[in-house]
Every structure is written in structure tokens, then in C-alpha cells.
């Protein structure tokens, strides 16, 4: 097994609780005069993490979940309040924008200082400077003070320095989001080569695309704690499914409450599972959505089923009325039907299923039940669905998947 580069155990960080200036005085007072110490707010708790040489870990989580704090503890910018973290090897860190650059000095001087800090000799720097300047690609700004740079330029310079130093461990916090499209591509390509050459990465990003593209493992931080850790697709898809559930519109729930109860959904099963856990499918699997519906006065209900992507894009919808069928009566006032979709062509991602009972005429909707499912897989195709396709007049080039 390869060498352990990062090992965090029971890692935690807490800050004194300070809301207003009066609190600040009170905290100071407590610090000075009380043995209890200041009241603290814990922003990271019980983090156990191991990263081996050659691994790539994506850190995901909502704003304020503690991702940057964890990176700062790993890189030694912050000291832990509890637990410990050990790091072996040279770290290249791109944390806060411009951290480590002196605003009054030119890009060129900053590069020289950064290189010296990382132990590069004057000769090595002279050799690598053209490469760094070329990677940053900021034109004559290289000789301007960094304080005149746009945020994109600062990131370009920071990444260029790191790229040339090729550290054992690369730690980056949302840097890809700052640069423009072509620089993002260049960075992604560089990171891919760096990983292929045995590099180790910790990447914080809100872009699941970048996380899935660059990382094999992921860790989801929620409220300062690890909510899930493991294979990148499992973690990112669970994270997206969590967001879907969170954003299920309040208006929709109100609509359900206000609707009459002539027809209501008793239960929905997705691939025979009635629980609310997201169903896990592989691209091309079958999807079966079974609904049991109660009819107050015994009339036959209709059932509508819709599928939407995590971002709300409609994928497909149909109803018993559209397909000229009716649910089967299974008991007094109880009906059952199942919609089966064979060989689901949806690309990997998170989706929601909406099931609505309707009146027999297919005019009024009475209830809404949501379930989610995740299509897993590492396909690099993009869009919503896999369209049957083939390439003509081509030959294999041996790369890609
Ligand atoms: N110096 C500090 N003093 C007090 N609280 C802090 C301090 N630094 C960070 N925090 C708090 O710690 C929590 C975690 O912040 P952190 O920056 O690690 O989150 P994050 O997951 O990186 O968020 P984002 O996605 O918005 O960058 C937040 O609630 C933040 O307000």
C-alpha cells in the first residue's frame, strides 16, 4: 500500500463565540478573569481522514460546512483545537485568493519569492521562470504589482507557481471557479497529468463536474462533521440527492395539504423499495415506479408520473390517461399501478420522480409524492440521456472511456 501523506485523527476546530462588539468585550473578560474560558463555537468536529500518495480526494459541502477550515488545518495555516493532523511531503496549496502574494510586488518578484520559499535555487528559478510565466499567461501584467491584478490573474499566477513546483500534495480551494474557461481547462489538464504522474490531490469545489472528473474519492462535510466518505460517485450523488430533497419546494408541499383528498397516494415503490432512500441504478437499468392510490369514493383514479433532473429540468412524464390504461383495483377504495421503464438511457446523475394521483379524466391532480434515484457510472458523455449513436469514418485512438 502506498505511503500515507495525510492522516487526521479526531480533528476539530473551535472559535470563540463573538457576535457583537459587546460579546467581544465579554469574551475578553472571560478569557482574562474566568477559569471557564470563552464560550466556543465548533466549526469542525471529529474528522478522521487518511490520504495516501497518488490518491485524489474531493471535499464537498454547503457554504460554511468547514471545507476551507479543514484545508487550512491540513496545510498548517490553522492549528487544531482538538485532535491531530500529520502531513508528509511538500505541500502546494492554493487556498484564499492571493494568499502568499505580496500586493506591492510584481508578479515576477512574487514568483521569485514563492520559489525561494519552496526551496528553489536561483539557477532553478531562472530555468523555470519562462515556464511559470508562460503557464500564467497574463502578458505584461507579470511586471505589474499584484494589487492591480484581477482575481483571475491572481489565480493564474498562483497556479502557475504550483504547477512548476510539482508538490507531493496539491491542496486547492475553489481555484478552478475563478479562472476563465480556457484557464480552467488548462488547470484541469495539468491536474490530470499531475495525478497520472503519481501526484496527490485534495480539491474543494462546488462543481460536482470537477470533483467527479478529477477525484476518485470524496468526503462530504456537513455542519463541521463528515457526513459521508468513499467513492467519488457515491458521495457526490448522495450529496446532490440531499440537495434535491432540501429544495423540494415548500409551495408543492402546501399544495398537497390544501388539495382535496378524493385521491391520495398510499405508497410509492421505486424498484420494489418503498423507503425514501434514493434508489441506486446503473445506466441502462430498468426503473419500476409502483404507486398505490386510495380513492375516497371508490372511483378509479388516474396516475401521472414525472421524472426531473436534480436541477429541475423535466426529463419525461406520462400518465395512465395519456396511455389509455387504468390502475388495477386491489381492495375496497385502493388501486395499484406500476410504470416500467426498461433500459433507462439517463446519464449518471440525480433525478426526482413525482407521482400524482389524478381524477379519472386526467384533469385534476390531488397529491404529490416525490422519490429520488441516482444513476451511477463514470460516463464522460454530457447531457441528459444517452442517445444511441456510432461514429463513422473513425479509427480507435486508444484513449478515453
Ligand atoms: N476566524 C473565524 N472565526 C469564527 N468563525 C469562523 C472563522 N473562520 C471560519 N469560521 C466559521 O467556520 C465555519 C466553516 O467555515 P469554512 O470557511 O471552513 O466553510 P466552507 O465549507 O469552506 O464554506 P464555503 O463553501 O462557503 O467556502 C463557518 O461557519 C465560518 O463562519
TrEMBL record:
Keywords assigned by UniProt, alphabetized: ATP-binding, Nucleotide-binding, Transport
InterPro entries with a match to the protein in the record: AAA+_ATPase, ABC_transporter-like_ATP-bd, ABC_transpr_TagH-like, Bact_Polysacc_Export_ATP-bd, P-loop_NTPase, Wzt_C
Entry keyword annotation includes Transferase: no
A Pfam family this chain is assigned to: ABC_tran
Domain of life (superkingdom): Bacteria
Keyword ATP-binding: yes
An MF annotation (GO) of this entry: ATP binding
ABC transporter domain span: 23-248
Family (UniProt): Belongs to the ABC transporter superfamily.
Name of this protein: ABC transporter ATP-binding protein
Amino acid at each position: 500500500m502506498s505511503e500515507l501523506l495525510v492522516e487526521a485523527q479526531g480533528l476539530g476546530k473551535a472559535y470563540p463565540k463573538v457576535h457583537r462588539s459587546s460579546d467581544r468585550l465579554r469574551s475578553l473578560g472571560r478569557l482574562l478573569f474566568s477559569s471557564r474560558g470563552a464560550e466556543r463555537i465548533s466549526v469542525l468536529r471529529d474528522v478522521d481522514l487518511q490520504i495516501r500518495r497518488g490518491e485524489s480526494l474531493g471535499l464537498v459541502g454547503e457554504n460554511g460546512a468547514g471545507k476551507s477550515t479543514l484545508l487550512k488545518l491540513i496545510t498548517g495555516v490553522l492549528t487544531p483545537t482538538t485532535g491531530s493532523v500529520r502531513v508528509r511531503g511538500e505541500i502546494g496549496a492554493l487556498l484564499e485568493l492571493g494568499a502568499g502574494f505580496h500586493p506591492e510586488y510584481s508578479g515576477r518578484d512574487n514568483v521569485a519569492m514563492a520559489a525561494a520559499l519552496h526551496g528553489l535555487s536561483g539557477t532553478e528559478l531562472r530555468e523555470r521562470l519562462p515556464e511559470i510565466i508562460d503557464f500564467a499567461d497574463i502578458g505584461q501584467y507579470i511586471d505589474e504589482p499584484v494589487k492591480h491584478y484581477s482575481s483571475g490573474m491572481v489565480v493564474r499566477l498562483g497556479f502557475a507557481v504550483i504547477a512548476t513546483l510539482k508538490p507531493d500534495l496539491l491542496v486547492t480551494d475553489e481555484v478552478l471557479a475563478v479562472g476563465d474557461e480556457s484557464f480552467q481547462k488548462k488547470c484541469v489538464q495539468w491536474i490530470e497529468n499531475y495525478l497520472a504522474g503519481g501526484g496527490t490531490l485534495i480539491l474543494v469545489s462546488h462543481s460536482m463536474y470537477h470533483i467527479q472528473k478529477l477525484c476518485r474519492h470524496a468526503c462530504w462535510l456537513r455542519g463541521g462533521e463528515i457526513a459521508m466518505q468513499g467513492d467519488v460517485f457515491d458521495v457526490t450523488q448522495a450529496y446532490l440527492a440531499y440537495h434535491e430533497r432540501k429544495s423540494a419546494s415548500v409551495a408543492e408541499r402546501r399544495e398537497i395539504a390544501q388539495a382535496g383528498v378524493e385521491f391520495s397516494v398510499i405508497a410509492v415503490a421505486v424498484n420494489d423499495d418503498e423507503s425514501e432512500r434514493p434508489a441506486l441504478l446503473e445506466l441502462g437499468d430498468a426503473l419500476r415506479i409502483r404507486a398505490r392510490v386510495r380513492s375516497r369514493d371508490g372511483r378509479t383514479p388516474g396516475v401521472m408520473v414525472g421524472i426531473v433532473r436534480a436541477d429541475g429540468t423535466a426529463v419525461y412524464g406520462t400518465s395512465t390517461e395519456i396511455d389509455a390504461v387504468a390502475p388495477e383495483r386491489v381492495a375496497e377504495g385502493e388501486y395499484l399501478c406500476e410504470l416500467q421503464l426498461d433500459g433507462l438511457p439517463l446519464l449518471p446523475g440525480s433525478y426526482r420522480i413525482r407521482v400524482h394521483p389524478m381524477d379519472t379524466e386526467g384533469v385534476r391532480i390531488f397529491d404529490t409524492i416525490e422519490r429520488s434515484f441516482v444513476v451511477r457510472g463514470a460516463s464522460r458523455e454530457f447531457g441528459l440521456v444517452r442517445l444511441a449513436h456510432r461514429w463513422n469514418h473513425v479509427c480507435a485512438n486508444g484513449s478515453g472511456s
